[in-house]
Amino acid sequence: MTTSANYTTITADDLTQFTVSIFKAIGCNEADAKLAADVLIKADMRGIDSHGVARLVGYVRLYENQRINTQPNIKLVREKGSVFTIDGDSGLGLVVAPKAMQIAIEKTGLHGAGFGAVRNSNHFGIAAYHAMMALEKNYIGMAMTNASPLVAPTYSKERMLGTNPICYAIPAKSYPPFILDMATSAAANGKLEIAERQNKPVPEGWLETKNGAPTNDPKDLKDGGHLLPLGSDKDHGSHKGYGLGALVDILSGVLPGANFGPWVPPFVAFLPVLDNLPGKGLGHFVGAMDVSGFDETDVFLERMDLWIERFKSATPVNENQKVLVHGEPEYWMAISRQLKGIPLIDKVCADLTQLAEKYKLDHPF
Amino acid sequence: MTTSANYTTITADDLTQFTVSIFKAIGCNEADAKLAADVLIKADMRGIDSHGVARLVGYVRLYENQRINTQPNIKLVREKGSVFTIDGDSGLGLVVAPKAMQIAIEKTGLHGAGFGAVRNSNHFGIAAYHAMMALEKNYIGMAMTNASPLVAPTYSKERMLGTNPICYAIPAKSYPPFILDMATSAAANGKLEIAERQNKPVPEGWLETKNGAPTNDPKDLKDGGHLLPLGSDKDHGSHKGYGLGALVDILSGVLPGANFGPWVPPFVAFLPVLDNLPGKGLGHFVGAMDVSGFDETDVFLERMDLWIERFKSATPVNENQKVLVHGEPEYWMAISRQLKGIPLIDKVCADLTQLAEKYKLDHPF
Fold this sequence. Notes:
The structure is a homodimer. Chain A is of the alpha+beta class. In chain A, 36% of the residues lie in helices and 16% in strands. Chain A is built from ten helices and twelve strands. Chain A has helices spanning 12-25, 30-45, 56-64, 93-111, 127-132, 189-197, 238-254, 297-312, 328-340, 346-358; strands at 2-3, 7-10, 75-80, 83-87, 113-121, 139-145, 166-170, 178-182, 207-208, 226-227, 282-290, 342-345. In chain A, the strands form three sheets. A seven-stranded mixed sheet of chain A has the order 3-4-5-11-6-7-8. Chain A has a three-stranded antiparallel sheet with strand order 1-2-12. In chain A, a hairpin with a 2-residue loop joins strand 3 (75-80) and strand 4. In chain A, helix 1 (12-25) packs across helix 2 and helix 2 (30-45) packs across helix 4.
């Protein structure tokens, strides 16, 4: 452990052990606690700090508000060949989503592909964790989820969609896999939170005020404003970002019978869940496809290497900023953090210390 | 037929009959000619004028340059349960893609889902035509294709990706289906062509000059410039648009062994095809999923109606511009054009008349 004025660095092992102990303290069995912790720590490892242990306090608060069932009876409620629906029984999304993905992977072994919609779940962490589970078998994996409404459709000033991420994970031979894991809003909520903490303006096109006016002030979001879809405005294709967010909402929410649109239950426990909900909990959509159903796996992996090489060598605008391939920066970040540990900002350490004290647990901070 | 100074209005039936005669003249059998014509006319009906009969001259030119085989032997070259690869034998994408989609629909009947990658094909028209084929059975349909390189990745000034569209078609009960059909660039190439014809500037964020500098001049594209991915710049998420375009390129190109990235053969016949191609023709990726594998079909369709109603009634910024749901404007346009005919601008009529004379065919212009 090393500390500085602003952050403390913890090894992945110590952070995992602590996180497991928290999940066990709120009632998860050993296996589920390990799985949930793994999802969070992998986010931190990959540098997606907004979705790692920084959220642990949020999950615990949802548990304390009886919004999460830590001993869920996760059930396959419907299936037809390669497709199926899972009811997560209000479990942690961190546990429900990997279990759904495991079934999608098994179905892929049988049918060449497997796709599952999930209802009655909660926030599932980074989409990449679930999609990347498919990579072990050289399958293509995908995962998406709907989320608390924050984004207004084109022409609207009402929060109707979450930042509804889409992730695809595609294996390569000699290179890190291609991992696209993107919010369908112009900017992820985490980026606004960082700007707000630092009292900095954000670019126009990230959010609007509650009246639908442009703003650079990240605080306008909490004041009833809304995020903008990818594309930011109609001229620049915000109807496409809105459409992608809508697609995620339909596949994750409408298809399995989870809540959707403005009815998706909020992640923050202090906001109320609406009455007369049309579905159960929030929803995910996960899947996998067997590369070998399309071509010899090795031949495909070699073509992926060629694709990656060609894109990495695309002519840059500025020689000092090479073209990036999705997933590569996070791959190297994970290797670095495995060696050097995970830096946690003081605010996160303070939250986690408080949590440890509340549940009378040892902690490494 | 009605004519004005700028356009001539033709009935869908007359335009179909003419288009069929052209496709037969270049060697298509009756069934293929009808299918290819249907794909083009449906685009015109839905108001996607850039992808309708306006492109007929382009397809013929590709045929005349021996880039299109009008009597292809379209083959299923690999399959595993619900997934498969098709070789289009250099056929018209307008014929190859619907045949691949038909197989995906058959596989969906057997396995709950079906996904096919297609190589050795050509431009397939509007993605929505293929995805919407699934709606007849209340399946969810999807289609994507790679295309001539025009878009530069984030941090690059090199044309590496096409406008690579993604389409999803999702059935509803009382409302028109949800149809998301979007280019993954900030603006479709067709919009630039219109601005160029009208000598009008375009918004910043649509394209850059060949040196990677911002520009409002649509002519800079032909001068070696490039389109920008959805998001337009890094601050507004262009890495997401780049990632979506890359995903389409990988699933459509790399997976089946078609060309990909900068190697995708250009649609315009006057640009050369590169040497040492890594694959065959261009590629598509199509698929379907059976809603009844996830829930009772009727229950899902009712939930879709609720989703659509709720989004249509989202609070607008401006009372005069209601919130739209994807696919609805095109649905009403098709009904209107079925009644009133399809208006073709003079330039398109002149091109088609010339084509008719060349092939000694009757024409309705």
